[in-house]
Specification:
The complex is a heterodimer of chains A (about 210) and B (about 260).
Chain A: H1 2-6, H2 9-34, H3 39-54, H4 57-70, H5 77-103, H6 106-114, H7 119-149, H8 161-172, H9 175-207
Chain B: E1 9-18, E2 21-31, E3 36-40, H1 47-54, E4 62-67, E5 70-74, H2 83-92, E6 93-96, H3 108-119, H4 124-137, H5 153-165, E7 171-175, H6 183-198, E8 202-206, H7 210-216, E9 219-224, E10 227-232, H8 234-239, H9 244-254
Parallel strand pairs in B: 3-8, 3-9, 6-7, 7-8
Antiparallel strand pairs in B: 1-2, 1-4, 4-5, 9-10
Amino acid sequence: MVLYILQGLIWTVIITVGSFAIGSLLGVAVAGARTAASKIVRVLGRIYVEIIRSVPPLVWLFLVFFGLAEIGLKLTPFQAAMLTFSVIASAYLGEIYRGGLATLGRGQIEASNSLGLSRLDLLVRIVSPQVFRTVSPSMVTYGIGLMKDSALASTIGVVEMTFRANQVTQNTGQGLAAFAIVGGAYLLLSIPLGFWARGVDEKMRKKYVVN
Amino acid sequence: MSETSAPYLSAKNITKDFGETRVLDDVSMGINSGDVISIVGPSGAGKSTFLRCINLLETPTSGLLEIGDFKISIGPGHKSATKKELSTLRRNVGMVFQSFNLFPHLTVMENISLAQKRVLGRNDDEAKERAMTLLDRVGLRDKADQYPGRCSGGQQQRVAIARSLSLDPKVMLFDEPTSALDPEVGAEILSVMKELANEGMTMMVVTHEMGFAREVADTVHVMVDGRVVESGNPEKIMNDPEHPRTRKFLGAVLGR
């Protein structure tokens, strides 16, 4: 039973890591849109973020899986879960990036421009490392939340841990044991991540005292 | 200062509007190679905005910039500067800011070598060597591996000067470089600037330091309400100002 349930861990990890990775890239575009020079782009970015964050993830998951199937786009449960969580992650991570950008003063951007550094250099060598430093703890916190949300994928039939525990419960009636195993697995995944995030944060703070 | 040869840098008829407000009204200024000019005046006069128009950190509403062979007209009917033009301009014009604006995630050495490598294409050794020479010059050789957060304000500003000099600019712009510092520390920065001037660097300095203007500047321009109201040699302006606004401003800063 333990083994059967833990085999579902791979899907939990794939959905979490995969959608976090895709969301963290799309999030750059979202943050870009939210801080764009053009007002129309800013408003569109705002609408995107608000719509995604206002609807519960479970509803989004059903909308994507059942809704898209109805209009002819039939996704497998795994595809639907990846798509949904990636898009949701892009909205949240985009907002996290935007918060980090706000802590970066205009002065550094001007200094970079006055030195003749290209926009790409500015983004890659000046802005990104600092924003990443500021937001990495929030990103990990969001990642842990995303991992827990990924359990929702069981509702559309992704055979991850929660789904398997549910199966075991239906077949054997040992719900307490089955879900305790799932809970324990989430706990073991979350705690080291949290510690790691705090460690990184403290190390960064010590290294370059932010002024 | 020779009046016959064309100035190395000139900004002509620079006008800048922020929305409805005209912050620069037809400001023209030129500087010969090796000269130092000081731009003084009450706050809000547009001094910093004017300086920032010279390296196009701020795009003027209209005007003409000439720096060496580089010429660009800005305004209705003119194209905006291309990336290449901007890069040429900024490589030749260094800028030092009131708030230092060092990159806090990079060491002092990395702050000074980054643009050398990315903009001038110097290799790591060349960039480091140049950075070390400059750090020696501003007296901060031992700070090379520190992060800016571990340096005092005065040290940060000296690093910022070294960073700007590392690209071998033809002209240096200083935007109130001592305003964020204690007077004592400000004096250190002014002495670094004085040395630079003595070595023949062409400098445009927005400052409240009338002492610096008097000692170092070849020409002082007084700006009030977005216009240059008076220009001339510092002794003349300070001892015998012609414009009533100059007199009022000097009265306030010199306490007389």
